[in-house]
Every structure is written in structure tokens, then in C-alpha cells.
Amino acid sequence: MNARYCYTCNQNHYKQSTMPFTALSGTLGKKRAAHLLRRACTGASITQIDEFASLTASEAYQRLTATDLPNPLPPIDTETGSEWITNGPTDANGDNLSTLLNAWMIGQMLASDVDETQKLSYSFRERIVFFMHTLFTTKQEKVNNTRSIYYQNALFRHYAFDTNDREVPTPNPDPDSTEILPNTIYPVNFKHLTKKVCVDNAMLKFLDGSQNVKGSPNENYARELLELYTIGRGLEGDIPETNTPGDYIYYTEEDVQAAAKVLSGFDTDTNVENGAFNNLDIETELPRGVIRGSNIATQHDNTVKTFSARMGNATIQADPELLQGSSPTEESVLDEISQLIDLIYDQDETALHICRRLYRFYVYHEVTPTIQAGVIQDMADIFKANDFKLAPVLEALFTSEEFYGGTGGVTDDVFGSIIKSPLDVTLGFTKNFNIAVPNSQTDTARFYELTRALLGEMGGQGMDFYEPFEVAGYSAYHQFPLYNRSWISPNYLTNRYNFVRNRITPGDLQDLGDISPIQFVQNNIPAADARDAKTLVISLIEYFLPMSTDASFDGASTSEMTQERMTYFLSVFLGTMDADPEAAWTSNWDSQTDMDKADNQLANLFNAMLQSPEYQLM
Which residues, in sequence order, are CB contacts of 565 under 8 Å at separation 6+? Predict the structure, then answer.
């Protein structure tokens, strides 16, 4: 055990880190490049993997963090040919706007509308946006408003790349003055995101924050804020015990009640249904909730809020300078919320909890006390030292040996250690084969044809996008001890395999999103490799399967693929009709005598490889 709980100071004491981050040296190579792009970007094409293989880990990270990325244009309703986000839907809009919005979000993860040179960095940003959704979860059905979900998604995007704070010109209040005032700096970090989520329209609706009023507090959001989004309950599987009811070691019921009072008095913006939003956050320029009342926050509990000893007996009260007389205002309530989030982020467990979530999302589900005292503590230290910005944490992680440096073979806890989510299966396949995604603005019908089909496939594989089963989110990202293993059941696995089978189509392509095996090999594999059956199998393994080191057919001890597995792929590929299948393949490929036969053989190989247990891992 590397951690012990101290009941004197109410915190864990960790031993010196036993697993500090070590910078990875040298270029990535094919296996590590594919690993990075699977985890960070939901997959990549062969060309992109080859490009990143020649980069160092630091160079690769810099490529992924381009700061000149565009923000996406709103989704278009095919019924009207225009977007409905800015001014709200009308009677002319279709009744499937939530499906269109979800399909549009899938399109963002596929970087459908950006230049080829920006696709990976755009996908990297959208992967962070999705991580934020898995943490600050909402459900479409409960929120029941596509505009609120859209703007929450935009809020996550605003804070996803947080290397730099936002700097804007400061207007001079004196219209006759020519003095140029210093620019205003708005912080961009995870702590400030948490402050904004507290008054986000979608979250106010989802966790009943709009029902939290003075004298009749609703504690739903306050409870989840402490338990799920920030402090947490401790290291899962190693949570300290207490015999005191309402004591959760790192916070108490008293803290939930006090936090609920701080958060009281907000409602969703009435313009969330129709019309342009009037209440925009000055820092993000995105819509947020409104106070109940006009100039005065009539439903806010303006008493002094006292927290438990677990949180240092802290108190939160309104800033007198922000009150109107003795009454609370929007400014005073927002300031109290800011005080609350500052208090929460002052707790050491907050950084640890968020970094555990990051680690499980990007690295591995199991966090032992040793990993907690090592890598997680390192991540948390970086997080706190950099004003709770994600970027320094992700940079340290994605350039470290700890992210790439698993030992080979079945004991490897880095490569292939995560079971792909349905999102990873469907979008990863689309990216692996560089399937062209139609532009959402100029080829809208075909864009939705593809992205809605992917949404349907995800649902059949067990992910109801933006409809997680529980308030804590998709169980694969939080549910101890099952985590990502919850994606697998006999039915879900069958649907994963069917997804691949239905898209690998020798001959003429039937549907948008289908691939031609022979065209793919001709366009992506060097001719010298493609003509040799064994070399071709090895080459495809290196791109598609995470456990690819020294893949060979001779049973080499360093091969991560067994000789039996390699022989299986080869036999399914070539069949047994020819006396010498390997020679026959080479002869046919060189002469192009019977390319229909070659196309069918490649379809057999792709189906065997991509319907394998290995392909379900990343």
C-alpha cells in the first residue's frame, strides 16, 4: 500500500513517486505512432501513421496542438437547408433535430469540414471535448433541447485547448479618451470550465439546478459536482472507510448542503427554446443560465455558507461590493460560485480524481495504489502547478515512456490495454480506411447519411450517444471494477463484427462508408509488400492491430502475435484452392490476371483481421 489516510489533517499521505514521468527518446516508429493516434485522435489513416512514425513524441504532440483551428459552423437541418441554433427552431424544422445534432458531433470527431493538414489536431481537440462530456455528463432526453446541448459542446471546445488564456481588448469607458487600456485576460483552464458548467443551460436542466431555490434547495447538482466531477470518493477499490453517516472522507453531507445553497437561484435562459440568447458569458461569449429575478437574485440563499472540517471549515459569503443594498445580484452569485470552485480545487483529491479520469480515458482502466502514488500523483502535480490546465498534463503524458513503454507480450498493460468503445470501433474504422466524410455544410444530405449510419452502429454496439445509462455517464469510463469491459457482450460483439463485414465489399462499392479491399491495398501498401502474401499480412497488422511488435511467421520469441495466429490470418487470406497459395498470390498480383479473385481474397483477410479480438483493443 503506497498511501495511508491521515485523520488529523484529513488527507492522504503518499510516498515519494515510484513512477515519475520519463520523456520518451527517439522517433515514435509505426507502432507507437498508431498507438498515439488511436488514443488521442480516435484513429488515423495509414498515411497519417507513417507521417507520425518519423516524429519524436514531442514533435508529434506539437503537431496535435495547432492553435489556429476553426470553430465549426452549426449543424444544418435538412428540412430547411439552414441551421436552427442561432435563433431557435420553427415549425418548418424537422422533428429529428437531436439526431442531427448527434450526427453533427460525430462529424466533428471525424474532422469532416477542415483541411487535411488540420484533421488530426482537430480530432485531438474533439477527443478532449468528448472526454469532458464523459466527465460532465448530460443526457439529450432529460435536457430536451438541442441548442443547450450544442452550446455545452461549444463550451467544452472553448476549454479543450487551454495552453493560452484568452486575451481581448479592453474598451475604454470614456468615449472621448484615446488611451489604449491593457488587454483583459480571461483564464482558460479546467477549473474555470467547472465554474462555467455550474451555470450552463444544459447542466442546469439535467441535474435540476434550475429547481434549486432559497428555502427549498435541490442538492442534485451539488452532490454530483463533489462526487463525480471534482473531489470524488477516493481511489476506487481502495476507498478509506468511515463509520460516520454522511462522512465521505474528503467531504460530507454538510458540504453538499452548503454547496447547494451557493448554487441556488439560477434558471435556464428562457430564450433556450426560441430566439437569440441574451445572457452571454463575458469570458466565453456563450449562453449561460440566468438568475431568478431581474436585477436581484430573489431565489438565491444569501446566507453565509459554512463547510465541514473535511474542507477546512471554510465559509463562503457574498462580496458586499457586488450586492444591491443587502440583496444578491447575478454578479454576487457568480462570485460565490467562483469561491466554491476555488475551494473545491484547493482540495488535493480534486486534481487526483480528475487525473485518474484522464488516465483511464487515455491509458488504462486499472489504477493501483502504486500507480496512484506515481503517475497519477505526477499528473496531479503538473495539473496544480499549471493553474489546472489540461495541456501540460497531456503533453507530459503523451511524450512519456509511461504512455508508450509497455513490455511486450500478453503482460503488456499499455498497447492494446483498452477495449475500444463503439465510438472507437466505428470512427476508428472510418479513419483507418481514410473514408471520405462529406462536408456538413455543402454536402449535407450525404454527410448525415454517413454520420447517422455510424450513430446507428454505435447504438447496436452498446453506446447510446449522449444518452448514457446513468447520471455518472457511460459506465466504461467510471464503473469500478468493470470499466471498458462493459462494452463487450455476445450481442454487442456480434454487432461489431457485422459492422466490419457489411463495409468490406469486394467489387463495386454499394453504400457510403464501404471500402474496396483491393483499392485500399493498391493505394496504401507498397507494391513490393503487396505482392508477397506474408509481408502484406505483417504490414496490415502493424497498422491495424495494437500488438504488432516483430510480427512474424517463424514463431520468434519477440513476436507479439503467435505463430498460430499469423498462420490463421494467412490461411483465411489465401485459401486452399491453389497448390502453392503464396506463389499463386504473387503471380496473380504481378500479372493482374484475376483481380476479382484478389479482391475477394483481400476481403477475407480484412474480415478475419478486423473481426478479430485483437482489433477490439487499442
Answer: 614
